[in-house]
Design a protein that fits this description.
The structure is a single chain. By secondary structure, this protein is mostly helical. The protein is 46% helix and 9% strand. The chain is built from five helices and three strands. The protein has helices at 3-11, 36-45, 62-67, 77-80, 85-103, and strands at residues 17-19, 51-54, 73-74. Strand 1 (17-19), helix 2 (36-45) and strand 2 (51-54) form a beta-alpha-beta unit. It is globular.
Length: 104
């Protein structure tokens, strides 16, 4: 939930970090959203540690996350509330995979 916690997790050998909450979501509305800047800072400080952006992630917000280097997301609300959950997952995956290919 913060830079110090992330630094400590990485220092102690974390092989994956959840970074967030990025946006306020209905799953955990009690948590203060840190915004995209927290994700950008994590990626800059720990470029080799895989991450999942979490908190209020939607298909519409994904391009903003990809722009700062996001390569993984955790979604709940966007999928569970969708009329076609499989379509949302496929579209998110397509965006993330196409960006991964473009940056390699």
């Amino acid at each position: 939930h913060g830079e110090l916690e992330a630094d400590e997790a990485v220092k102690n050998g974390a092989d994956l970090c959840g970074v967030g909450p990025i946006y306020t979501g209905r799953t955990r509305p009690d948590l203060h959203a840190a915004g995209v800047s927290r994700l950008a800072s994590f990626i800059k400080d720990h470029p080799t540690v895989p991450h999942l952006a979490i908190g209020g992630i939607t298909l519409e917000r994904l391009p903003e996350l990809i722009e700062v280097g996001c390569r993984g997301i955790a979604v709940c609300e966007a999928v569970c509330a969708a009329a076609s959950p499989g379509d949302v997952i496929r579209r998110c995956r397509t965006l993330l995979e196409s960006e991964a290919i473009a940056s390699s």
